[in-house]
Design goal:
This protein has one helix at residues 3-47. By secondary structure, it is mostly helical.
Length: 48
């Protein structure tokens, strides 16, 4: 295979991995935020 093609494929693959990591990070942050919200709601109910 030509080195230029291999390089472009590698760049494309790296971009896909980076995008997947960003999506994963975004989902984890959203889950963390939701858990914190739930905890605070339950904490308020107990103290009321």
């Amino acid at each position: 295979m030509h080195p230029e093609i291999e390089f472009e494929l590698m760049k494309s693959h790296a971009n896909e991995l980076r995008r997947a990591a960003d999506d994963h990070r975004w989902v984890r942050e959203a889950e963390r935020h939701n858990k914190a919200e739930r905890r605070s709601v339950f904490g308020r109910r107990r103290s009321s």
